[in-house]
Amino acid sequence: MDETFTLLPIQMDPASKSLSSPTPTPTLNSDLTALNTLHRAILALPNQIPPPPTNINPKRSAQIQKMRDQGNTSLRTSKPSPSPAQAQEAIKLYTYGIEMALGRPSWEPSAIVKEEAGLLFANRAQAYMAAQMWPEGASDGETSVELKRNGNGKAWWRRGRCLCEMGRWEEARTWVQSGLEVDGNEQDLSGLAREIANHLAKGDK
Q1: Disulfide: which of 31, 81, 109, 127 matches 90 by Cβ 3.0-4.6 Å?
Q2: Threshold 0.90, pTM exceeds
């Protein structure tokens, strides 16, 4: 059945801001009455607009942390390195955590979203590296840095390592140098910078 759009004439009283129609119908009258009642109720509030809740949902926080912890366990329980199945399990768990972090209501502080998601993207980059999925690891490392630029040396290192594994040495050098400007105390990042410099000094690209 085809849907038909009908433009209804509605006017607003300049003083009261109430809505009405010169050609009312029972349905339209009912809708406008409800809307006008809501408008008057909002105007009667002390601050005009009801404030959004400010508390962070503790259940969501706990679930996000649980996904992160379980992903970490999947990567760390086997020595010397996780199996492909364990790496994929960690990727799945971190992905669940990322979706929950990014799915927080808009009224919750954006800082908590950036903190949680930044850590999870860095973790998932590590899991992608364990699965030798270098492009995905490089992408997650970059996303993590975008969300948490300072104090995130591991994410800087992981993207740099992934770029090296893909043979993108010049790009890796530029990236690692930028990381050292932000977090010069990260030993792994400094070591990777030396490795890249030695590789390029041999004339390899």
Answers
A1: 127
A2: no
